[in-house]
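Annotated sample (chain length 118).
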Amino acid sequence: MYATPYEWIWYLHLAIYDASGVVTIAWFDTQETLNGCYHVFEQILTDYSISYKFLTYKRTVFTYKKKGALSEDKDTYTQFAYTCKQLGTQLKSSSVSQAKERIERLNQTLQSRLPTKV
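Output written by the structure step:
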């Protein structure tokens, strides 16, 4: 799952099935918020059932660490992380673009092609 600013007005939320490279959903929203992530998650649940694991970018929507904490507190969840926990979906976040190669490549493709189609 990934979100990126598009045309400085909209944010494009993307999800891709990593095993096949199939784009599961692309959602435009005015902000990069929990609302956009929930729309993506809802569509994945509707079309594909419960996912085993999500690899996301490192944002406070997905992960939370108390300032000054020495280790991650396993009982501290964001709303999205709590939802995933209740459904049995693992949530893994990374800020390294190499860990998310397919979604980064898809994002670059869509960023270059969408302006010509709109």
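Annotation: Residues 101-117 form the longest helix (17 residues).
Annotation: Strands lie at 2-6, 10-17, 22-29, 53-57, 90-94.
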